[in-house]
């Protein structure tokens, strides 16, 4: 069964929820960070120094995750710059290597031409990383996730194809619902954030999927900002 479902606006409350979670989690993290720094300053050398540094690095990582996923408290203005989609995809390939490589999944990029687009680099990168990460996570070991970039008249189109577990029409419909996840350690935030970013850029996302065969995620983005 093949389903095409247009993404719509499900995300009205995301801002409010995200802002309170970000706030509640950030405060204790900042406190822990402060105490660890105090401890680090009072210890001279040795193993504990190393452990403290690891703890501080991991805290910084947690802070980055909050920043990436939950920094949507205020309807943030997009910071539009001209960027090359090809270049952005190469960057994303690097970012996702630690997730794809251990499972021997190849992330392949097909580009017909260099596509220049006005977009908020960081936010678009976040959206694409979240969607491609989902494709990798749905895939079997040793398979390929293909990302195709093409330029239509005044749109760029990004297709993310996986040969993974696929989704039922009901499951497709639930993507983008806050905290919806079918994974043991999932957050149910990645797709929600991605869809929100792409919709803010006046683009849209469709999913075509077949259970047991795989999924294509089709992202359309205007080449120029639309007001
Ligand atoms: P998470 O990845 O933490 O579960 P997401 O919001 O990123 O949360 O995704 C929500 C759910 O959508 C996933 O748990 C999964 O069930 C489904 N999903 C998203 N992309 C795909 C895909 N390419 N193939 C199969 N299922 C997918
Ligand atoms: Mg995800």
TrEMBL record:
Keywords (A to Z) from UniProt: ATP-binding, Cell membrane, Kinase, Membrane, Nucleotide-binding, Phosphoprotein, Transferase, Transmembrane, Transmembrane helix, Two-component regulatory system
Annotated catalysed reactions: ATP + protein L-histidine = ADP + protein N-phospho-L-histidine
Location of this chain's protein in the cell: Cell membrane
Domain Histidine kinase: 20-225
Superkingdom field: Bacteria
Membrane-topology annotation of the record: Multi-pass membrane protein
One GO cellular component term noted in the UniProt record for this chain: plasma membrane
GO BP field: cell wall organization
GO molecular function: ATP binding; phosphorelay sensor kinase activity
EC number: 2.7.13.3
Enzyme class: transferase
The protein's name: histidine kinase
Organism name: Paenibacillus zeisoli
Record lineage: Bacteria, Bacillati, Bacillota, Bacilli, Bacillales
Full protein segment contained here: 193 to 419 of 419
């Amino acid at each position: 069964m093949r389903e095409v479902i247009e993404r719509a606006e499900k995300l009205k409350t995301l801002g409010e929820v995200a802002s309170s979670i970000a706030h509640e989690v950030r405060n204790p993290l900042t406190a822990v960070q402060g105490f660890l720094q105090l401890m680090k300053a009072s210890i001279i050398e040795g193993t504990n120094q190393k452990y403290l540094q690891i703890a501080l690095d991991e805290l910084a990582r947690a802070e980055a995750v909050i920043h990436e996923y939950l920094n949507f408290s205020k309807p943030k203005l997009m910071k539009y710059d001209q960027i090359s989609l090809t270049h952005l995809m190469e960057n994303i390939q690097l970012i996702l290597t630690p997730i794809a490589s251990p499972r021997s999944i190849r992330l392949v990029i097909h580009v017909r031409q260099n596509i220049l687009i006005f977009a908020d680099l960081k936010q678009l990168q976040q959206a694409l990383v979240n969607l491609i990460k989902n494709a990798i996570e749905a895939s079997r070991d040793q398979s390929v996730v293909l990302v195709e970039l093409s330029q239509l008249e005044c749109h760029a189109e990004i297709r993310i194809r996986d040969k993974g577990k696929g989704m039922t029409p009901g499951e497709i419909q639930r993507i983008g619902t806050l905290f919806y996840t079918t994974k043991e350690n999932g957050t149910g935030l990645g797709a929600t954030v991605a869809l929100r970013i792409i919709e803010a850029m006046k683009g849209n996302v469709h999913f075509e999927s077949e259970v047991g065969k795989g999924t294509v995620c089709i992202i359309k983005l205007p080449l120029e900002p639309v007001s």
